[in-house]
Design a protein that fits this description.
membrane; about 190 residues; Bax inhibitor 1; Bax_inhibitor_1-related; transmembrane helix; 2 domains; mainly alpha; globular; transmembrane
């Protein structure tokens, strides 16, 4: 990407990618599942810092596989999408927080579709059309997650976060945006 020797170093030292995966999953599940951790200062900030650093390293390692122009285009598309989605979430009279069950069904359907795509890839090899369809569906689902989470954080709807849950809200928004970025990157980018 921007600094070739850093990308080369990341590709040569896979142990740090695996370590980042471990830290990411451990801290993510701790933040999501343990209310005490995300509400206790200064541990909540330390956990958020570790979580952000681990996932940022993973995202950086992934983007090293793509050319710089593709990553920048993906960044702009993601930023514009997030801006418009946030404006829609804040200005619409539609209460997306009432659709929690729908989002659960969408999550399960997306996971099953992803497993099906993986099985098709294993049996028949890579299929560009299937990859594009899955990426498009996943991007749409993550846009809906972003609308939902924005409305939950802002409040004033059926479901809202309490003020003590600011760490949880930050984690959810970060994951929505980063997942959207990675999905769009996989859809439009050219690998180096």
């Amino acid at each position: 990407m921007f600094i070739p020797f850093i990308c080369l170093w990341i590709k040569q030292h896979h142990i740090f990618v695996y370590f980042s995966y471990g830290v990411f999953f451990a801290v993510y599940f701790t933040l999501v599942c343990c209310q005490h951790v995300r509400r206790t200062f200064p541990g909540n900030y330390l956990a958020l810092l570790l979580f952000t650093l681990a996932f940022s390293y993973l995202s950086g390692a992934i983007t090293c596989s793509y050319n710089t122009f593709s990553v920048l285009v993906t960044l702009v598309i993601t930023a514009v999408t997030c801006l418009f989605v946030s404006l829609i979430a804040l200005s619409t009279c539609v209460d997306f927080t009432r659709c929690t069950a729908l989002f659960m069904v969408l999550s399960i359907a997306l996971a099953l579709f992803g497993i099906s795509c993986t099985l098709v890839y294993l049996v028949f090899g890579y299929n560009k059309i299937l990859h594009t369809v899955y990426g498009g569906v996943a991007a749409c689902v993550f846009v809906l997650y972003l609308i939902y989470d924005t409305q939950v954080i802002v409040g004033g709807q059926s479901h809202e976060l309490s003020p003590e849950e600011y760490i949880f809200g930050a984690v959810q928004l970060y994951m929505d945006v980063m997942n959207l970025f990675l999905i769009i990157l996989g859809l439009i980018a050219d690998r180096e």
